[in-house]
Design brief:
Layout (H helix, E strand, L loop, with lengths): L5 H25 L6 E6 L1 E2 L9 E5 L6 E5 L5 E7 L5 E6 L6 E6 L6 E4 L3 E2 L13 H12 L3 E2 L3 E2 L3 E2 L9 H12 L2 H17 L7 H31 L1 E2 L2 E2 L6 H9 L4 E4 L4 E3 L1 H14 L10 H24 L12
Parallel strand pairs: 1-8, 2-9, 12-14
Antiparallel strand pairs: 1-5, 3-4, 3-6, 6-7, 10-11, 13-15, 15-16
Length: about 325
């Protein structure tokens, strides 16, 4: 299953990267100051639940060097624009809980630091009016994930940054897959890629507006069947989670290997890692279904496996992107 429908618009991603790199190089030439970093984290209680509306303070040595943020409904916070090479103290507090602090943290230029282990201990008696079900928590997770975009454009709906995510129900697996399939950027990318295939007459639908329309439809159908079967139908039947679980720590090599293993290793709904039969099944099913609407000269077993291999490679690239490009890149945390 190709995460965030990468196959149709990998060319667009490379173009966006080139533009972003060009802008970054121009900024570096005029502003040699170290690139600021970003600090993110999730605030939790001792029972593993997330704490919304917690106060985050990042205090530097100078009294005026101070940044603040507040956790969202999922306990997540982000502070961007942190000066590199400066020692800060991170203080987390919430009503009814004791404070948590990290005495010293200093970022390297451009570093994206995910702080783990932020756990607050209850100090006051808190009256809980209603218990939040696992389904409600999972729904909140999906709602947050469907707002994630690399560079503010590329949808990364299948990336999980929460260190303690709740497994998805069948309903939410279908919701996430369908939301990905109908994303406007994905549809526009299919149309863009159809123009490239038009020049190569691939598949052999002929030229003209009719050929272009058929290629656009075929490209979208390939992605739709892949995401729905590999991201919803099979994960529901096999009890597997179709999402990519962000590692964020360790060496670059270990993170790259973790990302590249995405098409072959999945986390089950029981929390254990297992062979990713869902994604592999989605790739092969998409290729097999394409045999029913591709021109006769483009059908056959070779086409099925060709589509599956392309989708597998695209998923690997997608997961590497999701591992190394922060969600909502460039957005600032509340209160910063």
């Amino acid at each position: 299953m190709v995460r965030f429908r990468l196959v149709p618009y990998i060319h667009l991603f490379l173009f966006v990267c080139a533009m972003v790199q060009g802008v970054a190089e121009a900024q570096d030439a005029s502003a040699p100051a170290p690139q600021p970093g970003t600090i993110v984290g999730t605030v939790m209680d001792t029972n593993g639940g997330t704490i919304p509306n917690a106060s985050i303070v990042l205090q530097g040595i100078a009294p005026g060097d101070r940044d603040t943020a507040q956790t969202d409904d999922n306990g997540f916070f982000q502070i961007a624009g942190v000066h590199a090479g400066t020692s800060y103290r991170l203080i987390v507090s919430a009503k009814g809980f004791g404070d948590w602090s990290l005495p010293s943290v200093a970022l390297k230029p451009g570093q994206y630091l995910a702080v783990t282990g932020i756990t607050l201990v209850v100090t006051d008696t808190v009256t809980v009016q209603a218990a939040v079900s696992r389904e409600e928590i999972a729904t909140q997770q999906v709602d947050l994930e469907t707002k994630q975009r690399a560079f503010g454009v590329l949808p990364t709906f299948y990336a999980v940054y929460d260190p303690n995510p709740v497994p998805l129900s069948p309903k939410l697996k279908f919701k996430l897959a369908f939301r990905t399939a109908i994303d406007p950027f994905s549809i526009g990318a299919d149309a863009f890629l159809a123009g490239i295939r038009q020049a190569n007459d691939s598949p052999s639908y002929g030229q003209g507006l009719q050929g272009y329309a058929k290629r656009t439809g075929a490209g979208y159908a390939n992605g739709f069947t892949d995401i729905m079967i590999g991201g919803a139908v099979l994960p529901t039947i096999l009890h597997q989670d179709p999402r990519y679980f962000y590692q964020g720590t360790g060496s670059k090599r270990s993170r790259v290997l973790h990302a590249l293993s995405g098409p072959f290793i999945a986390k089950g709904d029981n929390g254990h890692w297992q062979p990713n039969f869902s994604s592999v099944g989605g790739y092969l099913s998409s290729g097999a279904i394409a045999n029913t609407y591709y021109p006769n000269r483009n059908r056959g077993t070779a086409v099925v496996f060709s589509i599956a291999l392309v989708d597998t490679g695209a998923t690997m690239i997608a997961d590497v992107i999701q591992e190394f490009i922060p969600r909502n890149m460039g957005a600032k945390a509340k209160g910063h």
